[in-house]
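thread: overnight batch results

M.L. [08:02]
morning all. the overnight job finished for the chain we discussed friday. pasting input first so we're all looking at the same thing
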Amino acid sequence: MRIFIKALFGFLAAGLVVFPIDHPQAQEPIPVELKTPDHFPSKICPTPLWKNLSAVWKGIRDQRPVPVVGEETRGGKDPIPVISRIPLDMVFEKALKDLFTQCGMQWRSEGDGKTWTLSATIGEFYLGMDKKIVTSKGMAKSRLSFLAERPGQTVTADVGYEIESKNFRYQTTKKIEKTLNELFLKTLEQVPQSRQLRDLQ
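M.L. [08:03]
and the structure it wrote out:
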């Protein structure tokens, strides 16, 4: 009996075939380009706000858990992630430095006891469905946080913007890119309007 069981087990093992399980491949992200138009900083700051205020720029960090800035839905299929062609922190890095310069800040490589150090983080920047409403309405949101420091002083400021996007389920890549660029520019416009940042001197 034992010999029969061993023989049967050996036969089944020899005839065992493993069939691969098909897993759906992840969709390649769709890249979009975020940029500022020509002379954008001068339109936001036609006159200096800070009047040659010396500062050391410490850069901007992207603190979002994933680099996705939106999603596109095609024909009822799974959403395809949308990303910034150039990393979002690099896009904001150049735009913010240009904007602060136009608004009157003078950047220094090193500071002294009176020089501000300025840094920023990206907390939110995304265009997606509003899950609270069972419609095709989308919402684009952004949030930047700034930290200004010098001996004995610390200033924090949050700026951001929201855009309601209708018929979101049917938006093409071009429309998504247009909305994200609008969000990008509107976010930048809020920076010199921040009371906390304007009071730096």
